[in-house]
Design goal:
There is one protein chain. The protein has no helices and eleven strands. The protein has strands spanning 2-7, 10-13, 18-26, 30-39, 46-51, 57-59, 67-72, 77-82, 91-100, 108-111, 115-120. The radius of gyration is 14 Å and the shape is elongated.
């Protein structure tokens, strides 16, 4: 029904950059908040960045000034530009979308399958 497809993960040296992209497809009424989460081995999943349909953003303190989240409402995509990457950024990154399948229904969270980001020292 709804799919979130991520791309852009990979291996990069410390100080380098990656750009993650996520495209939502399927049948739904609207997408509201979108975001990126990450989970490192042995750690809890944490919010990296989020963006509302109007463009308001929220970032984890650890990535402020280095990461930038953006979205294209016409294309139903959300991107995460990651600069000045550090080894501690290594994690599986998950795309999240809070959306309504139909008007007057509650919003539900949908998740991508995750994409690995590895930053070497």
């Amino acid at each position: 029904q709804v799919q979130l497809v991520e791309s852009g993960g990979g291996l990069v040296q410390a100080g380098g950059s990656l750009r993650l992209s996520c495209a939502a497809s399927g049948s739904f009424f609207s997408i509201n908040d979108m975001g990126w989460y990450r989970q490192a081995p042995g750690k809890q999943r944490e919010l990296v960045a989020a963006i509302t349909i109007g463009g308001s953003t929220n970032y984890a303190e650890s990535v402020k000034g280095r990461f930038t989240i953006s979205r294209d409402n016409a294309k139903n995509t959300v991107d995460l530009q990651m600069n000045s990457l550090k080894p501690e950024d290594t994690a599986v990154y998950y795309c999240n979308a809070r959306l309504r399948l139909r008007i007057f229904t509650r919003e539900s969270d949908y998740w991508g399958q995750g994409t690995q980001v590895t930053v070497s020292s």
